[in-house]
Amino acid sequence: MGEDEAVEHVVLESSKYARGRNEMMQVVLSELGNARVEMTGREWMVLLLGLCGDTNDRMIEAVKEFLERMWRARSQLRPHR
């Protein structure tokens, strides 16, 4: 992650991970009943990280898969030292 990249940007906004993010968000929104779509970045992060009572196991698994795929993609792009 570059020094100027915030975790929130990488998880919620970075175009590099849009496909994986869209897959994750489909699960999350489905679990929420597609009712909550207007949240701040901070509110999304609280939900996605399981820091509120609205997060369930299916959502946590979708977030975990997204983060694992994102990390693998990032690791492949970085030169090995």
TrEMBL record:
It comes from Portunus trituberculatus (Swimming crab). This is Uncharacterized protein.
